[in-house]
Amino acid sequence: MSLYLLRALTVAGLVSGAGRAVAQGGVTPPASTFPARQPAAASAQQPVHYDHDASQKWSVHFQQTVIQQWHNNFTPRYAGDFSLQAREQAKLSLTTTAFIGRKLWKGAAVYFNPEVAGGSGLSGATGIGGAPNGETFRIGDPAPQVYLARLYLRQLWALSQETEQFEDDNNQVAGPRPKRYLALNVGKFSIADYFDQNNYSHDPRTQFFNWSLMSAGGWDYPANTRGYTVGAVLEYVAPAFALRGGLSAMPTDANGPVLDFHYGKAQAITLEVTKPYTLGGHPGTVRLLGFRNQAAMGNYNLAVRTAGLAGPDITAVRAERRTKYGAVLNAEQEITPNVGIFGRLSYNDGHNETWAFTEIDHSLSLGVTSAGTRWRRPTDRLGIAAVANGLSPEHRAYLATGGSGFILGDGRLDYGLEYIGEVYYSIDFPRYHAALSPDYQIIFNPGYNTSRVSGPIHVVALRVHVEF
């Protein structure tokens, strides 16, 4: 057992009390009829960064997540610079985050999240469009690094007299919140803190592990290598619906660590409408997201047309102010107080290179989660999901002629959809604020290649998550 895993288990033994769910990017879903760690369908008032008038001034919390992951050996028919490796040792990832919040004046709070991350994904998080560990990044050095994850100001203006009370939680200062409000968030954060929320499938620390289940695969969401950006998000939230719009920075290079603050030539615009509803007495939510990214992207067709003997090079045909458009349809529905289903359908035009998230141009995911009430483990959670990922014709042609992106590059491409199935079981230890989650994924056509591997790839993992 690794040193990181031992350390996480040691921390778990030192804390006590009831557990809480932690959503992707540190956003905590609202309380619901689901037991701990499994919220029911979201209202229009998600995400929940609450910071309103109350006697409490501070909020301080902590999380640590360790994932050990392994895949079976296989014999590839060919390989490129960014192929999934045929044989490799199990890979470990670690993230540790402090969530510190301070109320400032009426309706305002500041949030500060220092974070430590280390380890590596399978094959350095390359070779699969839907990478199997959402806690890993495409960073060469596996040594743990300290960095600033979030530092942002949230100002809220009440638009109604009615309020509801919220407890202290991650990036959430306890207190009442108006049921209808306008909020402005400015600073460094993850854009997924506000958009593409899904209570059943959004957080690799507590839910599904796969990249294309933690967020919509076709949404090339703006972020640096570690998943964060700098910008502003404006929210209008009411009980009947919510509207959100964001302007945020893109990285200076594809999947790069440095953000480009020249917003006039490189930026991401994200818009989303959220509509809650009730079906048969059970809550549900549907979200429609649209995005436009602009950066110095390369064009796939141009790279193929100008290819030399070494093959096409997307970096050689980059030009300022190229764009990528796309949309996401995201839905969730409670079936019973202990069972919920979800799905996402996402698409981008795929003319220009993937710039920030992963090499998926369209994706469909469906799944179901259940609390363990029927087998007398009410705070445990079981999740089962399936994903189909695909590429645009331009993207396929580029890879087929030997091109590489920052995730994919087998040297050739015999195209087919990439299919992924995942099942996880979260064993909750509320007394220790901890959960232990075994996970299994089966991947057909990794990297969209139908002929490189003769059979599916089997990925098994174990996750330890601690929070208080």
Core attributes:
468 residues, 4 helices, mainly beta, disordered N terminus, Porin
Helix fraction by DSSP (H/I, runs of at least 4): under 10%
- Tally the beta strands: 20
* Estimated structural class: mainly beta
CATH topology: Porin
Indicate the CATH class. Mainly Beta
CATH superfamily: Carbohydrate-selective porin OprB
Stretches where pLDDT is under 50 for at least 5 consecutive residues are 1-43, 48-54
List the helices and strands in order. HEEEEEEEHEEEEEEHEEEEHEEE
Roughly how many Å is the radius of gyration? 21 Å
Bin the strand percentage: 35-45%
Signal peptide: 1-23
GO biological process, one term: carbohydrate transport
Protein name: Carbohydrate porin
Keywords: Signal
Topology:
Elements: H1 3-12, E1 58-71, E2 91-103, E3 108-119, E4 145-158, E5 163-166, E6 175-178, E7 181-189, H2 211-214, E8 229-237, E9 242-248, E10 250-251, E11 259-260, E12 267-279, E13 282-295, H3 300-305, E14 322-336, E15 339-348, E16 362-372, E17 377-390, H4 393-400, E18 418-429, E19 434-444, E20 457-467
Antiparallel strand pairs: 1-2, 1-20, 2-3, 3-4, 4-7, 5-6, 7-8, 8-9, 9-12, 10-11, 12-13, 13-14, 14-15, 15-16, 16-17, 17-18, 18-19, 19-20
